[in-house]
Amino acid sequence: MQTVTLSADEVREAVTMREAINAVRDGFIGLAAGEFEMPTRTVMRDGQFLVMNAHHRASGSAMTKTLSLNFDRTPAIAGTVVWTETRRTDTLIADAGAVTTLRTGAAVGVATDLLAPADAGRLTLIGAGGQAPDQVRAVHAVRPLRELTVVDTDVRRAEALARMLAPELPATRIRTANDPETAVGDAEIVCCATPATSPLFTEEALPARVHVNAIGAFRPTMRELPDGLLADSTVVIDEREAILEESGEILHALKTGALTEASLTELGTALSAAEALPGGRTVFKTVGVAMQDWAVARILADKFLT
What we know:
Layout: E1 3-6, H1 8-14, H2 17-32, E2 36-37, E3 42-44, E4 49-56, E5 61-69, E6 77-85, E7 91-95, H3 96-115, E8 122-126, H4 132-142, E9 147-151, H5 155-165, E10 173-177, H6 180-183, E11 189-192, E12 210-214, H7 227-231, E13 234-237, H8 240-246, H9 248-256, E14 264-266, H10 267-272, E15 281-285, H11 290-304
Parallel strand pairs: 1-7, 8-9, 8-11, 9-10, 11-12, 12-15, 13-14, 13-15
Antiparallel strand pairs: 2-4, 3-4, 4-5, 5-6, 6-7
Helix pairs in contact: 1-3, 2-3, 2-11, 3-4, 3-11
């Protein structure tokens, strides 16, 4: 019996963003096909402690993630991802922060590849926190970026992120801003990665053709997107039960009548559908589901467990 423990750096060295995107895409398709047993995550202290589980029936493998979350510390996410299987006694323990940012970025990469215009190359990223770099890496993996605008109320933090990403994006024009309302005006893709409790911009600020990813609001008290944008867009979500339990902007839009439950399409269903989704504005809203962590953990298990 062997237990392999991986640090954040070791997770990042082992898994590329392209690998994570491919694994998470397959996971969403499997989720839609009923391949997973995945209870809604346990939430304590209003989202500061989370426990998530996923069991993949066909492989007899399971993942459990336990973490604490505090945006006032660095890193904001701390905890462990534990991988176990029925066919062998070896286990793997990985840093939850690295797995979480990778899998969240990967989900955005999957959704952006499905929903964003094929020629999109201008990204506005709102929020320069711990999730932000992998948001950019994931979008860039599926839509090579010509321009990137990093937006944060703390311009110094936006500038620091821009400097960090510059060597990875040598052909991309990078700029910074502190006002989301004006920064989204010429965007082809928008990524929202903030702990906001009210919309970051108005729907009128956006172009007529744009894809928006929203990852930051993961509790009913949080919102990043306005009702008008949701009413005017094709809305794709990660998983219905999780969204209706935790997504503040979706719950708000349902309450006001801007959305109906019937207008929400799960990402796995959209990936499996034969017909193309409509153009115009598209939104991907995710609160994160355990299958994504399982998908990244499976890559690690395949590489490190004999």
